[in-house]
Structures are given as C-alpha cells and as structure tokens.
Amino acid sequence: MTRALAAALIAPPFLAATALGQDPPPVPPDLEKKIEEVRQESDAKYQNLLEEIDAWKRSASTSRPTWVDRFTFGGYGEIHYNSVNVEGAEQIDIHRLVGYVGYRFADWIQLHSEIEIEHAFVEDDNGEIAIEQLYIDFLLRPGFNVRAGRILVPIGIVNQTHEPTAYNGVERSDFDTFILPTTWWTDGVGIFGDFHPNLKYQLYLGSSLDGSGFDPVEGIRGGRQEERPGLNEPAISGRLDWYPESAGGNLRLGASTFAGGLDNGNQGQNPGIDADIQVYCADAEYALGLWNFRGTYAFEHIGGAGDIGGGVASEIDGYSLEVGRHILPTAWKTGRLEKADLVTFLRYDFLDTQKEVPSGVAADPAGEREIITFGFGFFPVPNLVIKTDYQVCDDDSPSGLPERFNIGIGWSF
C-alpha cells in the first residue's frame, strides 16, 4: 500500500521527464516527508493487526476447557484445645480435616464430594474416615434440578453449613450434636430448586436411621448409618427456605422435616425393630447492621420407642438461640487486617432427649440439660478463624455437667 501510494505521487512527473529525455525532477522535501509518514503509519497498523491475531489465537487455545479446568478443589479443617472442669481432662484434638473435590462433566452435570478424617488417627474405635458427601447434580432449570448420591439431610442450619468459619463457637453446639446430629446424611435421590427467587426447596428420598443405635441421653446421634446403609425402611426429607423481600435479603426463615422407618442396618443387617421417626424443625437467621441472630427448634417423635428399649424416649426436643456482634473497629481494618473481623457471641442451648418416655420407663435426668456458651471469633482473613469460648452446663443428674473451656483454629477454602 505504501509503495503504490508513493508511485502514484511521483509517477506523472517521472514519466514526463523520461519521455523528454530529461532527468526526473527531485521529489519535493514536503512530499517525501509525507510519503515516509504514510509508510510508518501503515507499517504500525499492519504490526498491530498481526499482534491482535496472535493474541486471539492464544486466547482461543487457552479458553478451551481441559480436564484440569473441570476440577474444583477445596476443604476445611479445625484444631482444638479442650478443657473441662475435671482434673487431667485437657486435650489437643486435630478434630477434623476435610477435602473437597468437584468435577464438572458439563455446565449442567456436576459432581461434589467431601472426605473427612477425624481425630488425626484411625484404628479400631479411634478416629474416623468417612465420605460425608458424594453426589451428582443435574442442573436442568432454576425451578427443577435433580441430585443423586450421598446428600446432607436438609435440616436445621449447621448440618448443611458446618465449616468452622460458618458458625460461632469452637465446637458445634450440643443442639447440633445430639438433637440434629451434625454431620447427618442420607443416601438417595431428590430434587431441588427455586419456586420463586425468594423461595427455595429441597426434597429427597433416601436412607433412614438405625433405631438400635439410639440412646436415652445422646438421642438419635448413634442411629446414623455411615457405611452401606440399609434401605429396608427408607426416609423422606425436605426443606423450604423463604427470604422475605421486605427484609432486603437480611432475613431467612426455614422449615424442614425428616420421616422414616428405623428397622435399618449396615449392609442390610436390620435390627428387627418396629419403630419409626418424624423430625420437625424450624430455623431463622437475621442480620441487622453489626448484629446477627439465629435460632433453631426441633421436635422428634419416635413411634415404637418401647420396642427399641434401653430407655429411648418417644419424644425429644430442643432449641438453640444465638446472638452475635461484629466488634472490630473500622479504623483497625487497614493493611494486613483490611479484611479482618472480630465477632463476639452468646448462645443458649436447651436439649431434652427424655422429653417423653414409654410407659413404665423411668426418665434419665441427664437427658434434660442446658448449655450457655459465650466467646469470640477472630478472622484475620475471611476464611480463617481463631476461636475461644467458655461453656456453663447444667442438667438434672446428681453429678451435673462440668464447665468447659475451648480454644480452636479453623479454616475453609
């Protein structure tokens, strides 16, 4: 293009001079300068075009997803120091280390999994290795999606969001240990989605509990099936979450349930008991400025508790109420502490695993208890927390419950 333009500019006088047998006139300096400017501009545009083409080729090659790009890795863990008001009872506990692996087969087919190691060492009755979650989501549309595999029972607050950075206190509350036995899962299939942007649902059919593992004081916790759960009497579980539009996203109200038979055992070795369970739960979370509030109530009815025996109650209930406040001064959030937070909290738990017992059975006074927990959580960054708390415990047993002091560090990523 540059050479053609130059030829067009100088050709007429050059040809005329040649025809007359004369030397062509010199190119005027101004014209020669103009020709050089046009040549440089053209070369620059050509070079920029080549660079844009190379950049597009590189972008196209790197934007194609590879098998590595389809993986998601994460996890969480926590280390605790626990001390109870009993001489010599202090301990350090690498409580849990959990690895998360996800894989995207397609944008609408995704696998999720969590594998947990508890208490740092696994042998006989020490420690535990377990698959807490392993399921595949088929994302069909916002209002209807399918989930299959090992799924967390959608009940309460902590059971579905149990990372140490997601709740206050070093240990999970007694309510979320014995009334709703976190972590609690079901192996099965179900659907989930949004009825409306402010109303979400989950509904599953899967494995139930093993009633032979129930306990008069620890409630239904020992009934969780952890290896190859029997499906002799499966369970249905479901949940609704409502986010009132008037609250601007700061309020969530939840209702959940679980109902199933209890004649189930590992590898189909059923205990042969004629009993069933229904669990009804309501929970709420609310944020108001620097304040956070949450509460959960659960009621459990065990039909046929007398057939289970061992002092297992026919009715169990409990609730947990908590208030927290963010107290780190804004002026301190600079430099390395730019994203830091400091939360203080107070929680009250009430549990009664002996609320109603079968006829002729004496209630165990240790089943009714209350725990007051208060403490702090310091987040130097959002996904790492250093916690401490003190717990005042009480029950109706002659010996009572000891007070507890805990320190912990937890993380998620």
Order of helices and strands: HHEEEEEHEEEEEEHEEEEE
CATH class of the largest domain: Mainly Beta
Shape annotation: elongated
List the strand order in the largest sheet.
1-2-3-4-5-6-7-8-9-10-11-12-13-14-15-16
**Largest beta-sheet characterization:** 16 strands, antiparallel, barrel
CATH architecture annotation of the largest domain: Beta Barrel
What's the assembly state of these chains?
Answer: single chain
- Radius of gyration of CA atoms, rounded to a whole number: 34 Å
Query: Which regions contain 5 or more consecutive residues with pLDDT less than 50?
Result: 1-20
CATH superfamily of the largest domain: Porin
Would you write up a description of this structure?
There is one protein chain. With 413 residues, the protein is an alpha+beta fold. It has two domains: 2-60; 65-412, Porin (Beta Barrel), CATH 2.40.160. It is 15% helix and 48% strand. It contains four helices and 16 strands. The chain has helices spanning 2-19, 29-63, 175-179, 305-308, and strands at residues 71-84, 91-106, 109-123, 126-141, 144-152, 185-196, 199-206, 235-242, 251-261, 276-288, 291-303, 315-326, 341-356, 368-381, 384-395, 404-412. A 16-stranded antiparallel barrel has the order 1-2-3-4-5-6-7-8-9-10-11-12-13-14-15-16. Mean pLDDT is 90; it is low at 1-20.
